[in-house]
Amino acid sequence: MTDQSSHAFTGISDSNQLNPLFARAGESTDFPLNTIPPGESLPETAYQVVHDEAMLDGNSRLNLATFVGTWMDPQAQQIYSESADKNLVDKDEYPQTAAIETRCWKMIATLWNAPDVETTIGTSTIGSSEACMLGGLALKRRWQQARRADGKSTEKPNLVLSSAVQVCWEKFCNYWDVEARYVPISDEHRVLDGSDLKTYVDENTIGVVAIMGVTYTGMYEPVADIAAALDAIQAETGLDIPIHVDGASGGMIAPFLQPDLVWDFRLERVASISTSAHKYGLVYPGLGWVVWRTLDDLPRDLVFDVTYLGGHMPSFALNFSRPGAQVLLQYYLFLRLGYDGYYRVQKASQDVAVYLSGEIGKMPAFTLWNEGTDIPVFAWQLTKGHTDRWNLYHLSERLRIKGWLIPAYPMPDNISEMVVQRIVVRNGLSRNLAESLILDIQEAVDYLDALESPMPTEGLISTFTH
Q1: Kind and range of the H or E element at 135?
Q2: DSSP secondary structure letter of residue 112
Q3: Average pLDDT in the 97-113 region?
Q4: Beta partners for 209?
Q5: Bridge partners, residue 20, by sequence
Q6: Which residue segments constitute the domains of the chain, with CATH numbers given?
Q7: pTM above 0.85, yes or no
C-alpha cells in the first residue's frame, strides 16, 4: 500500500497529527542546551522533551540517600496542582492559606509540648535549612541584646554543635559571622551527648544545637542530657545558654514513635525547634517549620511589618515570594492522617528500617553503626578484615546498577577514616521492596567477594553531601 493510500485509509492529512507523538514534525529536532530556542514548539513537544530528560534522573522511590519525601496520594497531588499559583507571602490576597499556616504551626507547637500555644510563635519556611537559619538568628539576636543591656561587647559570638551537624549550620555560621565550635564525635561518643560541654561554651556562646536525627547515621542526640549539662554549667558559672533543637527528621518522628522521650519544650532550656515538613512531615519539597517556646524567644526586631498589595502583615523569613501549596498539603495530611495515622505511617517506616538493619547486620561483611530505632535511618561499616578487594564505594556502585541509590561516605572529622553506608527509609519503601533490596545487596556482596583481584580505587570519592 502506498503512502497516499495509507493516509486515505487512516484519515491523516497532516504530519503534525501523526500518531505516535515521536513521528510529529520537529519532534526529533535538537533543541539548544544553553540558549533559549529562537522559536516556539508545540506544548506536547516541549512536555515530551522535558519528560524524557527527567527520566534520566532515575527512580526517586529507590533513592535511599535522601530524606526528602517522594510520594503523596492522588488527593494531595490534586491539591498541589490546584494551589501551585498561590504566593504564601501575599496574605492579603490569600488570607485562608495564611490562616491555615497559623493552624499548622500551632498544631506542631502542641505536638512539641509548647507550654502555651497562645503565647508561642512559629512560621513556615522553604525547608529545615531556612528554619535553622531563623532559629540561629534569633539565638544570636537575643545574645546581642543581653550583652548590650549589660554593657558588654557583642563581638565574636559562637555556636556549639556536633561535628556531625548538617551543612546548613556551617552555612549559618559562615553567613552570619558566628564561630562554629564543633564537638567531635567518636566511637565512644557517637553523638553530642553533653560530655565535656563546659570546655566549649563561654560568655560568647549564643546557644547549643541538639540534633534529633543526625544526618550521618540517624541517631538522636540526647537533648535532656545536653540540657542537664548546661544546667550544671549555669549553676557553676552563671552562663544561661539556650538550646535550639534541629528536629529536621526526628521532630516529626519522636512525638509519634517515642512520645515519652523528653527532648522538646518540656525542657525549659529549649528555646526553639525546627523541622523539615518535606521529610517525615510527609509533604513534597519544600516546606519547613520553626517554633519558638514563647514570644520573648523570638526578638521582635527580627519581625518586619510589611505593607504588601494593600495589606499589613508580619514577616520573618529569608524568602519573600514562597509557594503556598505545600502549607496546604501539610494541613491536608494533618486532617487526613491525624495522630494515629502519622503513628502508623512512621511505625511502618521504622519497622522496615529495623528489618533492613537486622538483615544487613547478619551479613559477615558488615558491622552496624546503629539499627534505625530512632528515626528510620541507619548506617553500617565494612567489617574490619573482611576483604582487601573491595570497599563500600564499590558496593554503592554495584547497587546503583540495580537502581538503588545508597551512598558511601566518610564520617566527620576525628573519625574521617571511617567509611559508612546509610539507608533512609521513607514512606513508600515497602517491606517487599526492602526484601528485594536485601537480595540485591547479598548478590552484590557475593559478586565482590568472588573477585580474584582488588577493585580499582582510582576516582573513588564521595560526592554525597549531607
Answers
A1: helix 128-149
A2: T
A3: 96
A4: 244
A5: none
A6: 3-56 (no CATH), 79-333 (3.40.640.10), 346-449 (3.90.1150.160)
A7: yes
